[in-house]
Amino acid sequence: MTTFENVSVEKQANVYFDGKVTSRTINFADGSHKTLGIMQIGLYQFSTHKAELMEILSGQVEVKINGENQWHLFQAGECFNIPANSGFEIHAIALTDYCCTFID
Questions:
Q1: Is the pLDDT of residue 1 over 70?
Q2: What is the secondary structure of 47-84 as a DSSP string?
Q3: Cβ of 34: how many Cβ atoms within 10 Å?
Q4: Tens digit of each residue's pLDDT (9 = 90 or more) over 44-80
Q5: What region does 6 belong to: left with phi over 0, alpha with psi -120 to 50, or beta?
Q6: How far apart, in whole angstroms, are the C-alpha atoms of residue 79 and residue 57?
Q7: I want to staple 52 with a disulfide (CB 3.0 to 4.6 A). Which of 19, 47, 82, 92 is the partner?
């Protein structure tokens, strides 16, 4: 899917790590939401409340989920899951465009 129809977009950006990671929240009629964002090259750590599906739209990242020892490489067209009440380290190797889906 390359477009979302019948959604509302929150105007205020989500800004992390001094602006190196930003996103906008997209709200759907069924109550679900996603964020669309950009991640500059760098190493970042995030925690999760809900489970998440991260889709890499462009760029390349290495990811290590909390509790794992191994890094995994993901690039444009690939995705990965993060469990609820967890977290992950993400190393953006290139400027990365992403979509994060929050799973209830």
A1: no
A2: E-SSEEEEEEEESEEEEEETT----EEEETT-EEEE-T
A3: 20
A4: 999 999 999 999 999 999 999 999 999 999 999 999 9
A5: left
A6: 9
A7: 82
pLDDT tens digits, one per residue of 78-89: 999 999 999 999
| Rounded (5°) CA angle 26-39-68 | 100
d(CA 79, CA 33): 17
Residue 12 CA to residue 44 CA, distance in Å, equals: 21
- Give the closest residue to 53 by CA, choosing from 16, 4, 14, 103: 103
Each domain of the chain, given as residue ranges in start order, spans 7-103
Topology at the third CATH level for domain 7-103: Jelly Rolls (2.60.120)
Handedness of CA 86, 8, 97, 99 (dihedral sign): positive
Average pLDDT, the chain: 96
- Say which DSSP state 11 is in: S
